């Protein structure tokens, strides 16, 4: 057969096609190999930015998801991962949204730049472009929902980032949030908490409109929102967004204490601006508010804003309503009176009518969100009240005074040193506490009446002995003041060693108590009843009744006084008195003058122990 | 290991009880909000350990108007989405005559004279939120006919 015949022509065509395909493949193959060689020469896989993109902590990535890595050993081998990434970018996969190029834009752009990759393959990323247009990244804000009164653990707070767009309205911005993927409706409470602590859940990122986050935190959870505008440029925000896209759908083990919501926001900020070193400040614990302190200390906060929660708004209405009309909003929500009755009542001033109807709507929403009002009733009443209010014209917006910024409150770790007199003898004290805040610490920047302590250790030394005064494992207090709209109860719990038992030695005990509290802007007082149990050689149970008050009107001065009467199972009575006057000297320093009175029993005789002392507290 | 030790130390203080339910209600009308049955304060305390995600929020860009009746008049998608997810707060702010969500709606609708527009909306509140069962499409259509 001659190569000039038809068969010959077909064979030639076939051979030429094979040759072209082969050489294109070799061109790509040699192209990728060139880039890999170049990458090795430049030691790109050792570069800080590559490690940031992979979330490398030392030698291992913190991302526990196979989908995030191209190489089998990608989680522990940045060089292997870099080569595999290049292979993926140059592979013959379909170049659409499912391609590696579209899924990893941050890696793609960085590698292309570092390797001067003019002939890098390209892809059509329609989905990514759509979302990029929607999110329209221009600048970044760090958002901190503050504590919620019924949940002292929420004192630790939460942080997420808001990606600001070209819109004036921040409500239209998108928020990037990291949280544990837990089905809270089916999990048992204890299992849920334990799993959250030990990495039993996967954490995932979510991107959603800021107004949705406000509905969740400000309205449903009654938390004030603090916003910290960061000085990241548009290019840096874009760089961060590209990486956020890479994290879409990935999961990692969620650890409440360390790799939590706030910690992962720090990765994003470091990817935006690699010169930032934020994560290095945290070893054993990452408390969200502490991450805000670190961000501020890095000098990147250029503005601060405050959004009051629904609870804060209702508390403001409580001060604006005339006492004679105070019950009307509640009667409206309970359908005892109608909105028309308010409208047609000529003896009520127009201002008061507005306050009554506005607070009634807020209170209605609050009750509905707690499941206290049925949906049909809610719709009926909501429509009635808003229609009536709309006939009353426009008034000046509610002026809510901005409270102290949590970022100006004391830091998480506390050390204390002091001295005094106990029953005539000199005594010195030394203590440390890793977290977080108690009723005696300056309330500045914290939610009133809340306490959460983890490992509060205090030791004393006198001529007689050196002893443990306190070794609290955990203590939680939530003293919520009752008011017109809020009928909360107060509660507290403590477990650990203290010297409040009848003996002279530190004793291990547990107590849980409930009660009520009322207050005004001067301060608050409370009554609590605490069943308790102590354990030394035997178990000793009892119950304590406490009455106490705090004066906190002047931000730098805190007064605490508590009287407790206890009755034990063996019939013994015990009185305990505690008083403290604190002065906030600086953001992170406080001086406290204290007095303790404790009834003790020594060889069947009652004796009392009185201590006067001065403590210096320092936080960091 | 370090994580485990630190966590175990905290487990000591936990207590039992039925878990607080968080119902997430979606919809295009009024009353679509997260209902939190906070009958147990301790459960709220425990919830803070994970900041659990409510529902299947991932990278939810397109949401909000799926399943909602469409408006009769031409309306931009973002305005529809915004109104559908903010029915209650918009009603409140229109009734009062000012507010951030209302300003946001003004921006989405390219309103030039916001003060005049918001005053007109308040005056026509009962034509816009004409009944307790209004949906997003009704509200926007009503705004289109009365104020735009």
Strand tally of chain B is 2
Return the structural class of chain B. Answer: mainly alpha
Please tally the helical runs of chain B, counting DSSP H or I stretches of 4 or more residues: 8
Please give the radius of gyration of chain B in angstroms.
Answer: 21 Å
What is the CA–CA distance across the termini of chain B?
63 Å
How would you sum up this structure, described in words?
- The complex is a heterodimer of chains A (620) and B (148).
- Chain A is of the alpha+beta class.
- Chain A has 16 helices and 22 strands.
- In chain A, helix 1 packs antiparallel against helix 3.
- The relative contact order of chain A is 0.07.
- The N terminus of chain B is likely disordered.
Give a quick summary of the entry.
By secondary structure, chain A is of the alpha+beta class.
What are the SSEs and their pairings?
The complex is a heterodimer of chains A (about 625) and B (about 150).
Chain A: H1 6-41, H2 48-53, E1 56-57, E2 60-61, H3 78-89, H4 100-103, H5 105-114, H6 126-135, E3 139-145, E4 160-164, E5 174-180, H7 189-198, E6 201-209, H8 210-220, E7 225-230, H9 234-247, E8 251-254, H10 261-272, H11 288-297, E9 301-307, H12 310-320, H13 328-333, H14 339-344, H15 350-369, H16 375-390, E10 414-422, E11 425-433, E12 435-437, E13 450-462, E14 466-478, E15 490-498, E16 507-519, E17 523-535, E18 539-551, E19 557-568, E20 573-586, E21 589-602, E22 605-619
Antiparallel strand pairs in A: 1-2, 3-4, 3-7, 4-5, 5-6, 6-8, 7-9, 10-11, 10-22, 11-13, 12-13, 13-14, 14-15, 15-16, 16-17, 17-18, 18-19, 19-20, 20-21, 21-22
Helix pairs in contact in A: 1-3, 9-10, 12-15, 15-16
Chain B: H1 2-11, E1 22-24, E2 34-36, H2 41-47, H3 77-85, H4 87-96, H5 100-108, H6 114-123, H7 125-128, H8 136-146
Antiparallel strand pairs in B: 1-2
Supply database-style keywords.
heterodimer, A: 620 residues, alpha+beta, 4 domains, twelve-stranded antiparallel β-barrel, 16 helices, 32% strand, B: 148 residues, mainly alpha, 2 domains, two-stranded antiparallel sheet, 8 helices, globular, disordered N terminus
């Amino acid at each position: 057969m001659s190569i000039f015949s038809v068969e010959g022509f077909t064979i030639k065509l076939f051979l030429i096609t094979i040759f072209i395909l082969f050489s294109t493949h070799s061109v790509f193959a040699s192209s990728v190999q060139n880039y890999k060689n170049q990458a090795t020469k430049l030691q790109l896989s050792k570069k800080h930015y590559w490690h940031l993109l992979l979330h490398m902590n030392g030698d291992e990535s913190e991302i526990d998801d196979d989908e995030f890595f191209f190489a089998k050993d990608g989680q522990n081998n940045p060089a292997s991962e870099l080569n595999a990434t290049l292979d993926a970018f140059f592979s013959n996969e379909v170049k659409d949204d499912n391609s590696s190029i579209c899924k990893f834009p941050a890696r793609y752009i960085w590698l292309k730049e570092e390797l001067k990759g003019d002939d890098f393959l390209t892809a059509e990323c329609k989905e990514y472009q759509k979302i990029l247009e929607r999110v329209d990244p221009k600048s970044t804000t760090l958002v901190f929902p503050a504590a919620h009164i019924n949940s002292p653990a929420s004192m630790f707070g939460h942080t997420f980032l808001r990606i600001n767009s070209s819109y004036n309205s921040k409500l239209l911005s998108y928020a990037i949030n990291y949280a544990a993927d837990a089905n809270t409706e089916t999990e048992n409470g204890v299992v849920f908490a334990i799993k959250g602590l030990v990495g039993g859940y996967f954490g995932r990122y979510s991107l959603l409109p800021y107004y949705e986050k406000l509905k969740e935190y400000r309205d449903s959870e009654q938390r004030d929102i603090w916003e910290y505008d960061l000085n990241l440029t548009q290019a840096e925000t874009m760089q961060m967004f590209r990486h956020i896209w890479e994290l879409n759908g990935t999961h990692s083990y969620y650890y409440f204490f360390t790799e939590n919501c706030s910690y992962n926001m720090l990765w994003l900020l470091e990817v935006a601006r690699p010169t930032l070193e934020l994560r290095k400040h945290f070893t054993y614990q990452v408390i969200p508010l502490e991450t805000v302190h670190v961000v501020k200390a890095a000098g990147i906060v250029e503005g601060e804003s405050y959004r009051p929660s629904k609870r804060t708004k209702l508390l403001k209405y409580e001060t604006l309503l005339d006492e004679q009309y105070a019950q009307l909003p509640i009667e409206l929500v309970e359908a005892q009176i109608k909105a028309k009755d308010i409208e047609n009542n000529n003896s009520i001033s127009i201002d008061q009518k507005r306050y009554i109807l506005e607070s009634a709507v807020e209170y209605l929403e609050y009750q509905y969100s707690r499941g206290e009002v049925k949906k049909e009733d809610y719709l009926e009443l909501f429509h009635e009240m808003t229609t009536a209010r709309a006939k009353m014209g426009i008034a000046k917006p509610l002026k809510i005074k901005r409270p102290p910024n949590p970022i100006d409150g004391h830091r998480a770790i506390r050390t204390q040193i002091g001295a005094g007199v106990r029953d005539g003898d000199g005594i010195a004290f030394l203590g440390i506490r890793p977290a977080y805040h108690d009723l005696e610490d300056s309330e500045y920047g914290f939610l009133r009446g809340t306490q959460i302590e983890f490992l509060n250790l205090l030791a004393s030394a006198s001529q007689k002995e050196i002893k443990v005064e306190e070794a609290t494992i955990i203590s939680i207090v939530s003293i919520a003041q009752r008011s017109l709209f809020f009928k909360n109860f107060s509660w507290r719990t403590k477990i650990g060693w203290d010297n409040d038992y009848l003996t002279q030695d530190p004793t291990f005990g547990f107590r849980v108590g409930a009660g009520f509290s009322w207050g005004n802007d001067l301060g608050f007082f409370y009554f609590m009843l605490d069943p308790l149990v102590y354990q030394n050689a035997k178990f000793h149970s009892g119950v304590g009744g406490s009455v106490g008050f705090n004066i906190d009107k002047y931000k730098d001065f805190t007064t605490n006084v508590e009287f407790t009467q206890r009755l034990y199972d063996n019939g013994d009575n015990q009185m305990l008195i505690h008083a403290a006057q604190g002065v906030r000297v600086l953001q992170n320093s406080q001086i406290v003058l204290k007095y303790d009175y404790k009834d003790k029993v020594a060889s069947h005789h009652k004796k009392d122990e009185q201590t006067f002392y001065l403590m210096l507290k320092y936080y960091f | 290991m370090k994580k485990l030790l630190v966590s175990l130390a905290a487990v000591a203080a936990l207590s039992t009880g039925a878990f607080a339910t968080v119902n997430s209600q979606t919809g295009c009308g009024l009353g679509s909000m997260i209902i939190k049955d906070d009958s147990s304060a301790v459960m709220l305390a425990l919830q803070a350990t994970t900041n659990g995600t409510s529902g299947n929020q991932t990278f939810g860009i397109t949401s909000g108007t799926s399943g909602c009746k469409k408006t009769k008049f031409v309306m931009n998608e973002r305005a529809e989405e915004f109104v559908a997810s903010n029915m209650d707060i918009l009603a409140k702010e229109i009734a009062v005559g000012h507010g951030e969500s209302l300003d946001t709606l003004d921006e989405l609708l390219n309103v030039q004279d916001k003060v005049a527009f918001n005053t007109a909306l308040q005056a026509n509140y009962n034509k816009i939120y004409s009944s307790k069962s209004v949906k997003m499409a009704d509200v926007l259509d009503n705004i289109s006919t009365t104020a735009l």
